[in-house]
Specification:
Blueprint (H helix, E strand, L loop, with lengths): L1 H9 L3 H14 L4 H13 L3 H14 L3 H13 L3 H8 L10 H13 L3 H14 L3 H13 L3 H14 L4 H7 L5 H15 L6 H17 L3 H18 L4 H16 L16 E6 L5 H9 L4 E3 L5 H10 L9 H5 L6 H11 L9 E4 L8 H7 L4 E6 L2 H10 L15 H21 L4 E5 H6 L1 H11 L46 H7 L1
Length: 512
């Protein structure tokens, strides 16, 4: 009967698989395979908490690598990095023999930013079967680790096996040079000529082509390629400014109606987390690299822990992590408990020693709540020339299915969003003068020693000259700036928006 249950599951008949597994367990409470299958069913229907409990029950009955790998995966899908790492530390990857388990473990490790360990899993999986998806996963982690030659080779192998592999083409566009870039343009144009592309395929291939055009200084072609793709996406996912207006207005209301916390809800005085926030493409990764080059600071990457804990504490049932319910419920949230949970989740970063950087740009939406949870936490907010920021956001391919990035579908919407962001963080910084540091990207790269010194002093860190040499920082970078921040601090990106004139004329009137 158990075989029938697994057969039904592989054929997509979840209802039959579920009923058969339950029946097996009714006759044999120690049927670990049935608990395992029930967990897989719950993963498929996005019931991750229940899936985790079922995996743990299966492990109690029969502790095996297969179950532990899937439990780690389920925690990664919930964004619980510390739980993932705790489980992964109990698995000897040399004992993992299955291609599927090696690939799953590699993906899980990469989700929580452990790209060096992920590479070891992907390498062993590729030795068994050089599947295009595994080659791509390997290449992504290799890029984050600065292993560009290995990444290029793996991506070319993946594309040879699967010529229309849109994610691989997008990743490859970061790495091509010279004739390889020119040849890639022809390939991408041919792929985009197909009439059967999905919106996701079009977006990846178009952003890849725009990157290649930009290398050739064909800025007009780059802009038109992006605009055409974004207009196609806009038909299915139009940007609603009203939704973001509600968020920004909700934040202002939080400041206008401060609530005096009770003694039991005074937050946590830990100064371990340093929050780096700002618009995407504004220099947040650069600041993270500067700080994490310091001997007393570790990079935490773009952590979603705070926002997920806020979502859970607000008891919001919406599909969006950030919504008006979070703001309306904040008076009833126990921020001391939230802070403790956040510190527990992040305890693995730097092995619990020193400070760490939480560099999720959109954490600027959580500034009042970060302050309630951590009254003394340092917040660094990046500001950058609005035209460079808007063009950078327009050019970047963010998460396609995340509605919070829909503003990037036009330069005009980017400019509107930037204005809301600027008004909000200006209001915030005027109130939180002691523990919020406003840092201008252009000033930082023009005079690194001065501003890095001020930054370290703000974070209560002693001066270390190594912080000037971010190119020596070998830790993985899991952001769109992964290529740039492996170079010495420079001013090459300042004023880059001018390449896209005259397409910026409408937003120039706003900011100039």
């Amino acid at each position: 009967m158990q075989k029938q249950a697994f057969s039904a599951f592989t054929q997509g008949d979840i209802k039959t698989a579920h009923s058969l597994s339950v029946e097996v367990i009714s006759h044999d409470p120690n049927a670990d395979e049935s608990y395992f299958l029930l967990a897989l069913i719950n993963v498929q229907i996005h019931q991750y908490v229940k899936a985790g409990e079922l995996f743990k029950h299966a492990i109690k009955i029969n502790d095996c690598i297969r179950y532990r790998v899937e439990l780690a995966k389920v925690y990664s899908l919930q964004g619980i990095s510390d739980a993932v790492i705790a489980i992964v530390n109990t698995i000897d990857i040399h004992q993992v023999k299955s291609f599927s388990q090696l690939n799953t473990l590699g993906v899980t490790l990469s989700i929580v930013g452990l790209h060096s360990q992920a590479l070891a899993c992907f390498e062993r999986a590729i030795d068994q079967k050089p599947a295009p998806e595994t080659l791509y996963n390997y290449a992504v982690s290799a890029k984050f680790c600065g292993q560009y030659k290995q990444a290029t080779k793996a991506l070319n192998q993946a594309i040879a096996l699967k010529p229309g592999y849109h994610q691989a083409h997008f990743a490859l566009a970061d790495l091509t040079e010279g004739t390889a870039s020119q040849a890639h343009i022809v390939t991408l144009q041919n792929l985009l000529s197909s009439e059967k592309l999905s919106t996701e395929q079009t977006m990846h291939l178009s952003h890849a082509l725009a990157k290649e055009f930009e290398k050739q200084k064909e800025y007009g072609l780059a802009y038109q390629t992006l605009l055409q793709a974004k207009q196609q996406k806009k038909v299915h996912s139009p940007y609603q400014r009203s939704a973001d207006s509600q968020l920004f207005e909700g934040l202002k209301a939080v400041l206008e109606k401060p609530v005096t916390p009770s003694n039991s809800n005074l937050g946590n005085n830990s100064e371990r987390p340093i929050f780096v926030v700002g618009m995407p493409r504004s220099g947040t990764t650069l600041v993270e690299r500067i700080l994490s080059t310091h001997s007393q600071v570790t990079s935490g990457g773009e952590l979603e822990d705070f926002s997920l804990l806020m979502k859970h504490a607000s008891q919001s049932a919406s599909h969006s992590v950030l919504d008006a319910k979070v703001f309306s419920a904040h008076n009833n949230i126990d921020f001391a408990t939230l802070a403790k949970a956040y510190l527990t989740r992040t305890a693995h970063i730097g092995k619990g020693q020193g400070k760490f950087v939480d560099k999720l740009p959109f954490n600027f939406f959580y500034l009042p709540f970060i302050r309630k949870a951590f009254p003394k936490a340092r917040i660094i907010c990046l500001m950058r020339n609005p035209l460079d920021t808007c063009v950078g956001n327009f050019k970047q391919l963010f998460s396609i299915n995340n509605p919070h990035y829909n503003y990037t579908q036009s330069l005009e919407d980017c400019a509107w969003f930037y204005q809301q962001f600027e008004a909000w963080v200006s209001t915030w910084s005027n109130q939180d003068t002691q523990y919020t540091h406003m840092l201008h990207y252009e000033e930082l790269v023009a005079n690194p020693e001065l501003h890095i010194g001020q930054l370290l002093e703000f974070c209560n860190l002693p001066w270390e000259p190594e912080c000037l040499n971010i190119q020596s920082n070998t830790s993985p970078v899991s952001t769109a700036s992964k290529m740039q921040v492996r170079e010495p601090i420079n001013q090459k990106s300042v004023g880059r928006w001018t390449n896209f004139r005259p397409y910026t004329s409408q937003i120039e009137t706003i900011f100039l």
